[in-house]
Amino acid sequence: MRRLSIKEIQIIGSVTVLVLIGFVAVSGNLRSIPDTKDPPESVKTVAFPLDLNVSTEEELDLLPGIGPSKAKAIVEYRKASGGFNDVEELLNVKGIGAKTLDKLKPLIKVGEISGREVEVGPEPIDINTAPLEELKKIPGIGDSKAKAIIDHREKKGEFVSVSDLLSVPGIGPSNIEAILECIKPLEVAITGSGKINVNTASESELERLPGIGPVLASRIVEYRKSNGRFSKFEELLEVKGIGESILKDIKELIEF
To answer: Does Oxidoreductase appear among the keywords (predicted)?
Structure first.
């Protein structure tokens, strides 16, 4: 076997060194190539039923029939009223009717309100003096209803009873409770007959009836929220705590 010359050995050594340097360089570049694969994004899961008192606008927007505008209206109503007491109270939110509520009931719930931080206005709104923009802060009162309120008091004078409010176009039994909670008290929920209308009277007005204290007044309001308007005297007996004797005492003082 022929021995390699010194020059040949030098050439082979140089080539070997160059090969090693190239291998090291390529290996380093491969290690330095960043991983271009996007890391998996964390997916936020939403648990149903949604709590109307804590859900965000984005979460409420997932409900059938509730778009961004209605989701915003729900949150604004919640802030103004201090929270939902039951799912039926959704009917007080502009744009939500009975059919929509029926679809939502399996998907929503109402949690406890106590201890929860809510935004409450500094003081009740005086519906007889408040300007347009202030009236629009009342739940369910948009631009058109606010203008109708101002038009009513300019043409017919101040609001002195709930029945006056109910004569304003767009204001009815479904949203009167939310309105009464945000305004200064009116006189009495009576009609021309001098009787208290149990379908529109506030709790404080119902308490003026004999035998009806704060507890029974609250139950009457809750009953009509859940079951709709009273249509006959006997339906009042379905309210827990109201018996034949109380009904007899108030029968001549109320109407529907």
So the answer is: no
Sign of the Cα torsion 74, 77, 83, 87 reads negative
- Positive or negative, the CA dihedral 113, 119, 124, 127 is negative
- Both tokens of 186, joined, read 């009116």
The full length of the chain comes to: 256
Contacts by 165-170 with C-beta closer than 8 Å and gap 24+?
165/127, 166/200, 169/145, 170/144, 170/145
Q: What does the longest C-alpha to C-alpha distance in the chain come to? A: 133
Q: Which has the higher per-residue pLDDT, 192 or 78?
A: 78
Decide: helix, strand or coil at residue 196: strand
Q: Which domain holds residue 90?
A: 50-109
pLDDT at 27: 60
Question: Do 155 and 76 share a structural domain?
Answer: no
Q: What is the pTM of this model?
A: 0.33
For the stretch 11-49, pLDDT in tens is 766 666 666 666 656 565 555 555 545 545 545 577 888
H or E element, residue 109:
strand 108-109
Picking from 221, 105, 127, the residue whose alpha carbon sits closest to that of residue 171 is: 127
Distance, in Å, from the CA atom of 87 to the CA atom of 52, rounded to the nearest integer, reads 8
CATH classification of the domain holding 88: 1.10.150.320
Q: How far apart are CA 181 and CA 170, in angstroms?
A: 17
